[in-house]
Structures are given as C-alpha cells and as structure tokens.
Amino acid sequence: MFKEIRNKYIRYISIFLYCIIIFFCALQLNFLWLFGYSPSYKDIKAPTQSVGSELYTSDGKLIGRYYKENRTPVSFKEISPSVIEALIATEDVRFYSHMGIDFRSLLSSGLSTATGDKRGASTITQQLAKNLYRTRYNKSQGVIKHIPVVRTIVSKLKEWMTAVKLESNYSKDDIITMYLNTVSFGNNAFGIKTAARVYFDKGPNDLQVPESALLVGMLKGTSVYNPIKNHEKALERRNVVLAQMNKYNYITKDQLNTYKNTPIQLKVGSVDDGSDGDSYLRAAVDKYLEKWADDNDYDLYEDGLKIYTTIDSKLQKYAEEAVADQMKIIQKRFYSVWGNEDPWQDSEKKKVDYPDRAMRKLPVYAMLEKKYSNTPDSIKAYFNKKKKMKIFTWKGDRDTLFSTMDSIRYYGKIMNAGMMTMDPFSGKIKVWVGGIDHKFFKYDHVNQSKRQAGSTFKPFAYLAALEAGMSPCDKFTDKPVKIAYQEKGKTEYWEPKNADWNYSYREMSLRWAMGKSVNTITAQVTEAVGADNVVKWAKECGIESPLQAVPSVSLGPNDVSVYEMVRAYSTFLNEGVRTDPILVEKITDQDDNVIEDFKAKTKRVLSEEIAWLMLYMLRGGMEEPGGTSQALWEWDLWKKGNQIGGKTGTSSDYVDAWYMGVTKDLVTGVWVGCDERTAHFNNGATGEGSRTALPIFAKFMEKVYHDPSTGYTYGPFPKAKVKITRQIDCPSPRVRVDTSSTDSLAVDSTSTDVPIADDQQPVLKEEEIVKTEEKKTPEPIKQPAAEVPLTRKEKRELRKKEREEEKERERIKKEQEKNKPLGK
After folding, report:
1. Dihedral over Cα of 497, 501, 504, 505: its sign
2. What's the CA gap between 436 and 326, in Å, rounded?
C-alpha cells in the first residue's frame, strides 16, 4: 500500500507512523504476552484504589479499619490549596497546560541527563498512572521484562499511554485529587487525609503552608525525608519545597523567610479512634464476614466498605470497664492465694511443670533439640537468656528484662475473661469482649475458646424435665444418689456430690433445686429424663459443640463457648425462638449505598409456655432460698420491680467460672479463668462463679441502668402471653441459714472419689425450717411468697454466716480428703 506513495520521504514517514501505531496497538493488546497488562478503557473509567474498609458501631462510632494501605479518600474541596500549590511547584509546574506528557520537560531532562545531572520528567498524571495501575509491577510486565533496557522503555510508554487516557477522561482537578489520594507518605499512611492525621492530627483542609510543604517534600523519599525518623533531612527538604513555591509565585519572599524559620511541629495522631490498632471485635468481624466476602467477591482490606456492626458503643464501653475493674481484683486475689507457690496442679492436687511443657511446645524447641542434641544445657541457656520485652500489667504495659521462661511463667498465671451480650429478639450482639487485652492475648474467649460450662449447663436438664411433662413444682429429695452407666461394656457407677459435700435430705421443687444449684437433684432429674434428652434440648437451643451424653452431662463437663451459651439462653427470653446471633447489621460502599443488610436466622424450638417457665426457673437463682445469684443484692439493680434471671457455674477444681444473666431485654454470658487450665483457684470462696464472673455482670448492668441514654431500663420480665398449664405456685420454705453459697461442680465427673459414710450424713432438724404461710388463693402467674427481699441488715448477717460456714466446709472437706480411700 505504501508503494503508491511516490515521494519516498513521505512514504518513509508514513511507514514509520504506521509502525508506531501498530506497536502501540500491540502494546495495548499485550500481543503474544510480550508487553504485559495495560489499563483498558473500563479501567480508566472506573479506577480502583486499595481503600481500607471502616468498622462502625451500630450508633455510628468508628472503631477500626481493615487495610493493606491505610488510606481514606477525600474530594478536591477537602484539600488545602497550599497542598495543591506545593505539589505543582515541586513536581509538575506545567500541570495545567500539558496533556499528560510534558515534552518540554522531557527534552530538558534528556539534556540534563546527558550532562550528568539526572532528574525525572514524569508529570503528576504519569505518576498517577504508575501508582494507580501498577504499570511497573512484575505482574504488569510481559516476556520483555527479561530485557533490561527494553522493559524500561515499554514501562515508560505504557505510563504515557495511560496518562493520555486519564487526561482525556478526567479534569485536572480530578487527576490531582486521585494522585493525592493514592500516593504514599510513609508510616503506612496512604493519601493526603491519612497523612495529615498521622503527622499533624488534623484534616487535609486545615494544613498550613509549612505543613503542606513538608508532606509534599516527603514524596521524593518517604523514608529519607520522614520527619519522625529524620528530622533534619525533612526540614531541609521542606525548605526546598517552600523555595519552589516562592519561585513560582505561590508565596512571597517574606512568607518564604517566615516559613523557613518555622520549626517542624508534629502532632502524631491516628486516623480515628480505634482505627490504628487491632481488637477482638475487629478480628471477630473479619472472621464473621469471611464467607460473605468470598461469596460476594469483596476484599475487606481493599474495597473501601463501611461495615456497621450491631455493637452498642455505650454498652461495649461499660462491659470493658466492668471486665477491667473485676479482673484487676481477681488477678490480685489469685496472686494472694498462691503467693510464691506455683499454681499449676492437676485434679489430684499434684504439681504440674507447666513452664517445661509450654517450652517444649514452642516451634523453636524442636530446632534447638536437633542443634544441641548432645548439650541439653545449651537449650536451657537459650530459654533462660534475658532480653528486653514489653509485658502486660494492670498498671499499663511495662518494659522489662525477661527470658522466654520468665515470660511463660508470668503469662501462665494471668487470669482472663470473655463476655458477650445479645438482644435475643433481633439477634444483635451488643457487647463483645474477647479478653483482657488483645495486644498480648490474641485468643478470643467469646467464640474461639471453649471451656467446661459447669452449673450453667444445668438449665438444660430442667428444660428436658419440663418438656417431659414435669412442672417447676415437681419435687425431688436432696440425698445421695448412685447412677449406673456403661463404659467399655462394663457397668460403672457415678455418685455426684453437692458443692458443700453435704446432703440436706430435704424435698425440693425443681425451681428451688435449680436456683440453689443442687447437684444431687440435677443428677436425679437427668437420670429421669435421660442424658440424651438433655443433650437434645441443649442442641435445639443453640449449643453446637460436641456433647457427650454421660450421666454428668447436666453438671457441665463438656466444653462450650460463651457465644453458644448466650445464644442458648436467649431462646428462653425470645419466647422459645432460637435466634442466631448477628455481629454485622449492614455494609455500604463509600457513598453509603447499602450493599448488604443482615438479618438473624430464627427457628422455633420451644413452646411459649415452656420458654416462659424457663425464665421463671432462672429467676429462682434470686428468688429461691439459697439461690446462687443472690450476690447480686450488693449492686443497685433492684428498682421498679426489676427482675433478673441467672445461673452461676464453676467447673471442677475451680478452673472455669461462669455467670449467665438474663434481664427483660438482654442476655449476657461471662467466663473467667486462666488460659492454662492447670492454673486455678483452690477453693470456692475465691474461685466460684458467684465471686468471679457474677460481679462482672452486676457491674455492667448497674452502669447500663444508671445511663438513661442506653435505652435499657429496670423492669420485670414480660407476662406470659399464653396460659400456663403447669403448677408454679409452690413457695419454698425459708431456711434461716443458707448452707449452699458455693456453686462448684466439686466432683462433677464420672469418678466415685470421696465417698461420704452414712454416719456423716446430716439430719434435718425441724427448728431449721421456717415455713412461709401458704397462699389461700393461688394465681397461675403470681410470684411465690419466698420472693420477698431481705432487709439490708438481714443481708449482711446472711453474708457473714455464709463466710463462716464456707470456712467450716473447707475444713470438713480437707479432713474428708485426708481420709480418702486409696486407689480411687
């Protein structure tokens, strides 16, 4: 076709231009995979930035972010003019006059390079193309990346092409805004908004001229000119930028002299509260949305989502305060109990060498064992070598000299906690406290950790009894029981003991027995309804962990999570409808367009009558004589007829302490214990649920009730909406002296240790019981007379008696252990 052009010069020029066009087409299309990726028209029209997602509470408070590059985009109007002027004066003085490529600057740069003065000629638009579309990344390059000079030329040409495309699709203001939102300012600060907050703790529209010059100056080298790390270099570079601004008439000579003599005044900040650190909640939401993100092709760390959790910021704050306040007390108590003695011991009270076991589990131990196979002392020397370390304390993080073994021993004695509060009607999780400090303890004690539920599992036995046709007034006797079970084809026997190691031989209603947490009656109920049915109804209510249907199942030997227990107890308050908890309410894009609304899944598993009866049973912990929740009297929780249902729980050897609290609006679960199970309290006075976990619930609810803005108020549980057909009006006799203040499993296992001889059984005396006056006209839903609260004087006397009897029980228990038969 070129032969028709007779003029050879025109013909050669035409061939040259044709080859250039073909070359650029091949470049754009990545012909034969030679050139790598080039942005398409669609990419140019919809540029993507790696924008972190923001995490909010339900009331709109920013509490965290997910990001690979810590960036929050802003509009042109939100950027101080001095930033724009400093950028143009320093990086691209003809920005508003060129078409993306500054040929004049290219020529000047080429001449300078030829004379030995290397300097760049990239325009702001070219730099945007490089940053936005990663044109120089390996994945953007094709086969020619292996040819050094050629790959550089091709990368530059792709930047030119992309720059021209950007210029043809966006205004100059849009381009400079995208650039300032994209570029890195060091210290993991991407974009001008993040940089302004990180270095000066202000918005980008509030930046003064020296501050703008400092940030723009950093673009030449974010490490070299970092004002935090290299103050002098940063000051020198800032003044160069100020000189450029004066040269191009953005500031006067007098202003230049003033600004150059202004010292750098940093005010290191963060993007927003909670945005620069990790947390249990942030990690939990990440896990919660993992499947949703995969199914919907979203990346929390790059797609700039706004995630609105169900968390109530006020309730979360009060919960964290309650946990911190109580855990300081518990930790001090734990140290006081053990003193200089190691706390690690098994169920037989034999010492366990936990530090050695923990050391051997470390990945580095196997490597050292191979390296020093003939010199084991070298391994010990490695783990006992002191080094600088920051450790957790309740008085704040502390720098110290610790060896690895010191660290293992120290953290092996730290008590931890998990707490979750849920609105059972909507399924919204209002509080999530995964532990005492996420920086030092990453393991989440709400959902990751599973521990023995202890007596908090007992309600499922009584639920199975109600489902079997029993009523809260059905009675069993607190007496020794011997339950047969099969193990490996052999008949074994389980003989549960009460927490105080005594039997009252008193006939008790189911409500009284559950409120008082009587192990022997719970065991009888379990035997009557079948362990399989206890497991069945626990599963129906929301327990998903594996449960062994053993005779002791109702006493909580199985490991479960706080999350599961809260979901299960919520079924009772939600009229028998099991509601799966939700942690995220909705997700929007940067423009607040809703991407996803989350609704809780529900399923009716109990009748309304059974659910109401379970609430009535749970109230027994406060209302029945000797109820294990009565320590709640110490807090300001009893106004306007307020009612609280709850259950304490303590696993064997006081390893795990629980409290499950239910009000008319919320269900809360609290667990307290040490991550290392062999570290635990040694008696009920210091380690049972009513003295460790219950106060956290009490302090939390007191704070919630005292703040009217939370919307949660005192008040009774809802009245039954259906006819209650079971008998509930059976007032329990009021015992003058409560003999069951503890709520531990004691020996809640399938062992038959510590039998009590017949001559040790207490005999119930008539004068120990003061019967309440029977009601003449019982009403189906009326509270029994035993619900009348004691006076403050009576409460103090009762607590004094409880402490005295606790000491006596401990003395008796120690004597019984001394007389324990050998071989059992």
Report:
1. positive
2. 11
**Strand 734-735 and strand 667-674: pairing?**
unpaired
Distance CA 442, CA 528 (A): 43
CB atoms near residue 608 (< 10 Å): 16
How does pLDDT run across 365-400, given as a tens digit for each residue? 999 988 898 888 999 999 999 999 999 999 999 999
Task: List b or e across 417-450, with b for residues whose CB sees 16 or more CB atoms inside 10 angstroms.
Answer: bbbbbbbbbbbbbbbbbbbbbbeebeebbbbbbb
> Comparing C-alpha atoms, which of 616, 613, 630 is closest to residue 689?
630
pLDDT digits (tens, 9 = 90+) for 257-300: 999 999 998 887 654 434 445 799 999 999 999 999 999 989 89
Question: Where do runs of H (alpha helix) occur along 518-635?
Answer: 519-529, 531-541, 562-573, 608-618, 620-623
In angstroms, the Cα distances linking 713 to 193, 702, 703, 760 are 41, 10, 11, 49
| Terminal C-alpha separation, the chain | 104
- Between CA 198 and CA 188 the distance in angstroms is 9
Q: What angle is formed at CA 727 by the lines to CA 721 and CA 730, rounded to 5 degrees?
A: 120
Rounded-to-integer distance, Cα 222 and Cα 242, Å: 18
The number of helices, as runs of H, and strands, as runs of E, in the chain is 29, 22
Task: Give 506's contacts (C-beta < 8 A, 6+ positions apart).
Answer: 477, 478, 764
Entry pTM: 0.73
Q: What share of the chain is helix, strand, coil (3-state, %, to 5)?
A: 45, 15, 40
